[in-house]
From TrEMBL, chains A, B:
One of its GO terms (molecular function) is DNA binding. Signal peptide: none annotated. Keywords: DNA-binding, Transcription, Transcription regulation. The keyword Nucleotidyltransferase does not apply. Transmembrane segments: none annotated. This is Metalloregulator ArsR/SmtB family transcription factor. Residues 1-91 form the HTH arsR-type domain. It comes from Metasolibacillus meyeri.
Length: 108, 108
DNA sequence: TCCTTATATAAGTATTTGCTTATATATAAT
DNA sequence: ATTATATATAAGCAAATACTTATATAAGGA
């Protein structure tokens, strides 16, 4: 693993909001709309963070209708494996069970 | 290990010049003057990078006359252990054997 | 003491970053 | 076709970053 790739992945991970995104995704797939609630920043800001993580090869996406589900890629570099192990999980952002306010347990 | 400390250490490590500094220190103690040659940036720039790594608890220092020897702290966090493992070693910066142009194998 | 050397700090600046609001794109529903 | 929803992209801006040069500090030697 080259130092320039290490730099790219470290830069992608070195932000508290993106650390929280990664923490959420440790629980499974998450939608952009859920992240907005979790981080308290705008939807475009979330999109930009996710793009940075995607460009570093850390996450990938899946389109479901108008939604987009993001998740950690399966084959992480040794560097990212170590980092992801250390990131503390975040509750309240599990897309599997309550994605995009669909499923009947939302009050909107 | 809290996510805010993780952020601090990731931010400290997420720079190619600082990655090179860490790579050098994997070989042992290094002086500021040696880093200047290795990185090709000014001495104050090196000092500032080293301060950032020190403030993140990643490195420590030892004063020897007018020189200052920097080295990795012994008790690294699990996060930094993983990162340091992945950083590729850099040759030409081993302070133990050729520190600050002292030792007779310099041509100045 | 004065001068030199090694390093740190200060101040200034260009670049990068992380947000914002506004707009574009894509899908679904009416 | 029109409208609504979810996400992405564009543009602009404030804050952070990484350098520079100039200066301060500290130790050693003449």
């Amino acid at each position: 693993m080259e130092n320039t790739l290490i730099e790219k992945q470290l830069k992608a991970a070195a932000d508290l909001n993106r650390i929280k995104l990664l923490a959420c995704m440790k629980n499974g797939e998450v939608c952009v709309c859920d992240f907005v609630d979790v981080l308290g920043i705008s939807q475009p800001a979330v999109s930009q963070h996710l793009r940075k993580l995607k460009e570093a090869g850390i996450i990938t996406e899946r389109k479901v209708g108008t939604w987009k589900h993001y998740r950690l890629v399966e084959e992480q570099t040794p560097l990212m494996k170590g980092i992801l192990e250390q990131i503390q999980p975040l509750t309240g952002c599990n897309c599997e069970t309550d994605c995009c306010h669909v499923g009947g347990n939302s009050n909107e």
